[in-house]
Each structure stands twice: as C-alpha cells, then as structure tokens.
Specification:
Blueprint (H helix, E strand, L loop, with lengths): L5 H6 L9 E6 L3 H17 L7 E6 L5 H11 L4 E9 L5 H19 L4 E8 L2 H7 L7 H19 L3
Parallel strand pairs: 1-2, 1-3, 3-4
Helix pairs in contact: 2-6, 3-4
C-alpha cells in the first residue's frame, strides 16, 4: 500500500490508539536515523498513539538492534517494536557483516516474539541513497516500518496471537 493515504491505512485496521510501541534506533548515522525515528513517530501519532506510549530507545549501531529488541520483548512493556538503523557501504567488508547480523538477528527476534517486530534498517551504498529513504512523508522507511508493525498488530489480533 505504498503511498496510500492515512485514511486508507486506518480503514485497514492500522490503528495505534492504546498501543505501547518501542522505537529502537541506532545512533550511528544519526543524521539518517533521527529522520527514520521522526517518520516512525509521525506514523504512530497520526494513527492514534499517545506520545507517552511511544518510547524511543537508542543503541550504538545496527549490530545492537537485535539485542535491544530481544530485551524489549522480554520486558513485556510493549505491544510492538520498530527497529531502525542505517548501514552505509564503506571500503571494507564490515558493511556485510553488520547488515547480515542485524538482519538475521532481528529476524530471529521477530520469529520468537509474541509481539510484532518491524525491520527498518537501511542498507545503502551511499549517503544519498540513505537520505532518499529517510525524507519527509510517507515514503520515509521509518514511517513505513511503523505502518507495517501496526498492520502486524492487527494480524496478530485476528490470529489470536496477541
């Protein structure tokens, strides 16, 4: 539903009212991740979340996102988690290792969690690509990740899993 209006999302059960959501974001590449956090927060607030029910938790980098997400699930205080980060390719294989482990780690957390965990980690070749994905509006990948987690809350409820 890329580019769908907020009204269309609401009609599809993507409501945030009454939900407690952890937005876990890396500090590395903060100029990008701050924009992702802003996008995710905007999506949640537009769909009825109370500001006090959206908790932003910062971690050093994308590598730490799975660890923090797992602890947030264990804490039992949240109805959903949005994990946000940005890894930009450099001259060494470090990019590959961090991207792989962040992806696999968050996937493992999501599969084992009783609450939805959304993946909003940018893996780009350069800063320009990252900025393009962290701009204002509904194409912001943080915004999209928040909408995805709201949809999954609705799916979990329909399936009786949350």
């Amino acid at each position: 539903m890329k580019g769908a209006s907020p009204a269309a999302w609401s009609r599809d059960g993507r409501e945030a009212a009454g939900l407690r959501v952890a937005v876990i974001a890396s500090r590395f590449n903060a100029d990008i991740t701050d924009r992702l956090v802003a996008g995710a927060t905007k999506a949640l607030l537009e769909r009825g979340a109370a500001a006090a029910d959206v908790e932003t938790i910062r971690v050093p980098g994308a590598w730490e996102l799975p660890q923090a997400s797992a602890r947030a699930v264990e804490a039992g205080r949240f109805d959903a988690i949005v994990a946000l980060g940005c890894v930009i390719r450099g001259e060494t294989p470090h990019f590959d290792y961090v991207c792989t482990e962040a992806t696999l780690g968050l996937g493992a957390v999501a599969r084992g969690a009783k609450i939805p965990v959304a993946f909003g980690v940018l893996t780009t070749d350069d800063v320009g690509q990252a900025r393009a994905r962290a701009g204002d509006g509904p194409d912001n990948k943080g915004f999209e990740a928040a909408l995805a987690v709201l949809e999954m809350v609705s799916v979990y409820r329909r399936l009786g899993a949350g």
